[in-house]
Every structure is written in structure tokens, then in C-alpha cells.
């Protein structure tokens, strides 16, 4: 077990990525209820909202109200997502958030063009402007992210070498501007990863950048979520994004109702069984998953919430 | 990838273990419809029914009618489950089945007592009678099975050494009576396994019996199904039980609606991505999963049936 981390950092994305994809409107009160409950579960990092164009994402129009209404817990980081300067300004003005600058490159040129209407060179060139914005606001640039690192609906399989190149570009962008990234995230944006590709990609990035901390953003679109997380743990990855109950869906899935992000409580169950510390009280987290299910009004895909814990059965 | 098998044998258990646990009655016609569709998917082994006491399991009272009604496909094995001589006699009389003798020991003494009201010595002593019955009927004894090999709701964690001992006892029972087991199955009867315990248990059995073929019977009760199957593949295991759509539930789960067996099509997706041959046409199998969902009248837990295939996206 020598490569396993002794503890993992989990970024809970249910309130943001999870609620964002729900077709039914989620009330501000319900969003705050879930965030507050998550704060009490032992999670140390919750991404609570995104500051995006309310005409395009009406469900996140109340981001400021959510941030104002939630109760901040000592020792928990509360972060938000934004896609441009306007979103960042709203996040900064909202107050009460742990602002963190992030750089983003794409391993799929086709997805980048479709999503941002940019070439790789244009996306690269856009990053220094972001860095300057963060620096002017006194916000540290801590995170790099490679989207579509494991495959792309518009381009197919992604060469591992391209992911390694993108990671190198992120590190160069940061250091060229006097910043040091705390970690780089690899995103399985469209649910293509398998444990084998997780091992290959993480291994290749590790080979080239042995001291870089990596995180994984995984989807369970094709049922590989937990298996991919396991492969990440085997490779020593100690940062994971996840969503309580398996919230999140997948806008790129073949059919309606596809599974969402890596399910937080199923992942915590795995870590508990492996003796890897997460800080999370699994029973409290399962209560959060049940609350999330009640709020969205349909079954979520998490398994441990129905299967039950082993802890009591061991007594 | 040197330990990965080049091909795996899948025993589809959806019609038997899956339908057996459904609370609503499944019609004989629907059972046959699913079996016939599965026969066309490329699966080479389908466990179609169980011959058990109809007073205790009314949903399997039509086992003979199912076997008579289904259309046997060249190259597909059709097997059944039974628990005693009476069940075996019914299976033999039904005709059209590939009869296979099986020996069964338990890694959990507490579960054995609860399930069969026997001590380990009594369960061991009961096996030669079974062997004699099979030999008298000219039915080969091909399979050994260790129940509760990864943990037990009534006993907790199971010592790895005990599983190794049970496997040794199965092999001894067979050879003492002139039989040679084709493989020994390890059952995660109550959904306790993690990829780590799969590796530990399979590794320990392999160490002691390097030439023995192993199979895994996995449940997804706590979301570990695919991850556990991956761990098995990494250890070179090339036989798996699975259920289309993730049918199967778990009578030992903490709450209603728990996930069922390892989901066949999610597992086939993983094998396809790894280049491991299963013989299965994944699109045809997904049609079977949709049919299974229609027949049981509620959502099943399989992911690929909603996430969609990658094959078309690669074109």
C-alpha cells in the first residue's frame, strides 16, 4: 500500500456543479440548507456557487444570496467558480468566499473551440490577463486545470503527451508571472476515463513533474467513478473533486439521467475502508446525500446511502 | 498490463439473482423475453432460474416453464441454481439446461449458521453427499464457491487465511472424490469488498493455489462493484458473475433500494476499453438492460445505459 496517500483533500462540488445541472429550480433556502449541512459533515472544502451569466444559467442567479445566507464554519474553505472577469468581480464583491485564482487549459482542441471558440494558442494567451487580474486583486493563483484530459466527445481519445504538455504550459504560465501553483487538476470532463487511463495519464504527468501535486475531477457517467478514484489513490493522488449523492449529471452524456460526479460519500466510504483520512463523518455525509435527494426531488445515484455503513455491522 | 487477462468469461445472473429479488411479480413471458435477448448479445453463459421452494420464493415457481420456453442459442451455457437434492432433481427433469455440480463452503461461520443452521464441520460433511448425487446423475462437479469471502454482516471482517482454508477444503473435497474443480468462486455476498480486499484475498488464494482458476461474484451495494472488478482484472481474474442493468438488489443492505450485482454492461464497457475480450456486443447488451428496466418497472443502477458508448464518439 506504499503509494496510497495517508489523507485526501475532497472538494465538495454538489451545491455548485450538482445543482447547476438540475432542471428544476432549487430555492436559495434549500441551497443554503445543504451547504450548511455539508459544513457540519467534516468536509474541509465546498464549492458553493458559480458566478456565471444569469441569462445562460438562471439557476445560479442567486449566487450572492447563497453566499450571504450560508453559515461559514471554521476550518472549511468556501470557493466559487467563475469563467471571466465579470464573474470574478461578483465573487469578490459577494464577500465571505475563499478566492482562489485558477488557470485553465484544454487537452482537446476541438472541445476548446466548441466551448470557448478559441484555439490552444488563444487560450494560452488569455491566461496572463487572468493572472494580472488576480494579482491586482491580491488573490493567489493556486490552481491549474486541464479540461478533457481523458477523452473528448468531439475529438475522441486524447494523447497522453498532450496532457503532459498542457500541465507544463500551466506551470510555465504561473512561474513566468511569479506564481506557484499548489496543484494541477486533471478533468474527466466528458466521462471517458477508465482506471487504466487514470494510471497512464497520472503516471505520465508524475514522470515529467514528480513534485507536482495532482487532483482529479471525475465523473461517473459510465460507472467508472469509484474505480477511477481508486486508480488515482493507487497512484498517490490526494485531492479529489466529488459531489454528494452523486449529484452533477453530465451535459455530454448520451442520454438523459446519466450519473453525475464522483459520489462523495461512496468515495469517503472507500477511503474509510482503506484507512485514508478524509476528515469526514460518513454518517453525517449520508444525511447530506438524503437531503440533496429530497431537494432535487428525484433519486440520486449514490450507493452507500442505500447500502448502509459497515461500521455498525463490525461492532 | 501483464497481469490482465486477454479475455473474460461472464456469467449473466440477471434473470436468476436479479428477478428473484424483485418485489413485483415478473411474468414467465417477460423472463423468457429477457433471456432470449441476452442470448443474442454475445454472452456465453446465462444463469436463467433457480429451483427453490416455491413457498419460500414464489417468483421462481415457474422455473420449469421458463426453461421450456426459452430458445437455446448455440454456444451459450444455460445454468440454474438449486440448494438441495429436490432442486437438482427439478433442474435435471426440466431439460435443456447445462447441469453443473457445485460445492459451497462459507467463510463466515455466523452467516453459515444463520443461513443453513450448520457449523462449518457440518457444511463440510454435507458436500460428499452432493458429490455422490452428481456422480450418480453423471453431472460433472466443476465449481467450488466460498460465500461471504470479503466480510459478513453477522461476523464483521473475515480473516484472509480462513478464505484460503475454505478454498483448500473445496479442492480436497473434490479430489478426495475423484473430481477436479474447474474454478472456485469467491462471493462478496453482503457487499463488503473493496478493491484492496479483493487484491488481498485473491492474492492470498493465488499464493497458495497458483494454478487454480478463480471467479468473483461481486455486489455493488456500496458502490464498489466496478472498482472491485477492476482490482480482480488487475490480479488476473478472468471469470465474473454480473447482472444486466445492475439487477439484483441486496437482501443484506441497510436500506431498501440498494444497488444489485456488478452491472454487466458497465463491466463489459470497462473490458472493451481495456481491450479485454468478452464476446459481448455492448449495444445489444444495453438494449437488454433497457428491457430489464421496462420489465421490473423501476430504474436500474447501470450507468453506461444512460451515459452512452464511446465507440460512436470515436468515429
UniProtKB/TrEMBL annotation, chains A, B:
| Pfam families reported in the protein's UniProt record | HMGL-like
The residues that cross the membrane are: none
Report if keyword Transferase is assigned: no
Sorted alphabetically, which CDD domains does this protein's record hold?
A: DRE_TIM_HMGL
The cross-references to InterPro entries, in alphabetical order and at most eight, read: Aldolase_TIM, HMGL, PYR_CT
Q: Which residues form the Pyruvate carboxyltransferase domain?
A: 8-286
One GO BP on record is: ketone body biosynthetic process
Q: Which UniProt keywords apply?
A: Lyase, Metal-binding
Q: GO molecular function of the protein, one example?
A: hydroxymethylglutaryl-CoA lyase activity
- Kindly indicate whether the keyword Cell inner membrane belongs to this entry: no
The cross-references to PANTHER family, in alphabetical order and at most eight, read: HYDROXYMETHYLGLUTARYL-COA LYASE
Family, similarity comment = Belongs to the HMG-CoA lyase family.
Name the UniProt record assigns to this protein: Hydroxymethylglutaryl-CoA lyase
Q: Which organism is it from?
A: Antarcticimicrobium luteum
The taxonomic lineage of its organism, from the top, reads:
Bacteria, Pseudomonadati, Pseudomonadota, Alphaproteobacteria, Rhodobacterales
Amino acid at each position: 500500500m506504499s503509494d496510497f496517500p495517508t489523507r485526501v483533500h475532497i472538494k465538495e462540488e454538489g451545491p455548485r456543479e450538482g445543482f447547476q445541472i438540475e432542471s428544476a429550480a432549487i430555492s436559495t433556502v434549500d441551497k443554503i440548507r445543504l451547504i450548511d449541512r455539508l459544513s457540519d459533515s467534516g468536509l474541509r472544502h465546498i464549492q458553493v456557487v458559480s458566478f456565471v451569466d444569469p441569462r445562460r444559467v438562471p439557476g445560479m442567479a442567486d449566487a450572492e444570496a447563497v453566499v450571504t445566507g450560508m453559515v461559514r464554519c471554521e476550518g472549511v474553505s468556501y470557493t466559487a467558480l467563475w469563467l471571466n472577469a465579470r464573474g470574478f468581480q461578483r465573487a469578490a464583491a459577494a464577500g465571505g468566499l475563499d478566492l482562489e485564482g485558477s488557470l485553465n487549459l484544454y487537452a482537446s482542441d476541438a472541445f476548446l473551440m466548441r466551448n470557448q471558440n478559441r484555439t490552444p494558442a488563444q487560450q494560452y494567451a488569455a491566461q496572463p490577463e487572468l493572472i494580472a487580474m488576480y494579482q491586482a486583486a491580491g488573490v493567489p493563483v493556486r490552481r491549474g486545470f486541464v479540461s478533457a484530459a481523458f477523452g473528448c466527445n468531439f475529438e475522441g481519445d486524447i494523447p497522453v503527451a498532450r496532457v503532459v504538455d498542457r500541465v507544463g504550459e500551466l506551470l510555465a504560465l504561473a512561474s513566468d508571472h511569479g506564481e506557484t501553483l499548489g496543484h494541477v487538476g486533471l478533468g474527466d470532463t466528458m466521462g471517458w476515463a477508465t482506471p487504466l487511463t487514470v494510471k497512464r495519464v497520472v503516471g505520465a504527468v508524475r514522470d515529467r513533474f514528480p513534485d507536482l501535486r495532482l487532483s482529479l475531477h471525475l465523473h461517473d457517467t459510465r460507472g467508472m467513478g469509484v474505480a477511477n478514484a481508486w486508480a488515482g489513490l493507487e497512484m498517490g493522488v490526494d485531492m479529489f473533486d466529488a459531489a454528494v449523492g452523486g449529484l452533477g449529471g453530465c451535459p455530454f452524456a448520451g442520454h438523459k439521467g446519466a450519473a453525475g460526479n464522483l459520489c462523495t460519500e461512496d468515495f469517503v466510504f472507500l477511503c474509510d475502508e482503506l484507512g485514508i483520512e478524509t476528515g469526514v463523518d460518513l454518517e453525517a455525509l449520508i444525511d447530506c446525500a438524503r437531503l440533496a435527494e429530497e431537494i432535487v426531488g428525484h433519486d440520486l445515484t449514490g450507493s452507500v446511502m442505500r447500502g448502509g455503513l459497515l461500521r455498525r455491522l463490525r461492532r
